[in-house]
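From the shared-data thread, chain only:
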Amino acid sequence: MKVRRSVFCMLVAVLLVVGMARGAMAAWGTKELDTEKIAVTFAAEVQRGGYKVVGTQELKGWLDAKKPMLIVDTMPYEDSYKKQHVPGAVQMLFPIPEMTKMDDKTKDALIKLLGPDKNRLIVFYCGFVKCTRSHNGAMWAVKLGYKNVYRHPGGIKAWDEAEYPIEKVK
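Structure, as tokens:
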């Protein structure tokens, strides 16, 4: 009787462990598939856009070193930029869907913002990795002949999570 109870308890324990592991594996696999999809989409955007990528810590290092650059926040003014942005960033709104064309008014505004120096260090960011506003800004800067263009994929969300200083419009 004791042996049967012990075997029964071990069997129940094994089934519980297998069940939990199966659930954990399913959740792990699903999240990884989501991450992979985001990564593949991001890599394709970077390739199509022809720009470089800068991480949050590296961008913070550039700011701390007072590296001369233009930082462009591509989020809406009222909803995001006004409330929080990377110190020194300027704002120019870009749409989320990839821009296959740009009207003359927007093109002129972008050229004015970026300035005449085609070798100027320019960093575009938006809200987070899946947001493609920064892709549009960086891609169009490259299309307009700017050579030193970066996208900060983590955007203001990564900047905030790193607990780096944030500016607000007063």
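Helices lie at 2-49, 56-64, 77-81, 104-114, 133-143, 155-161.
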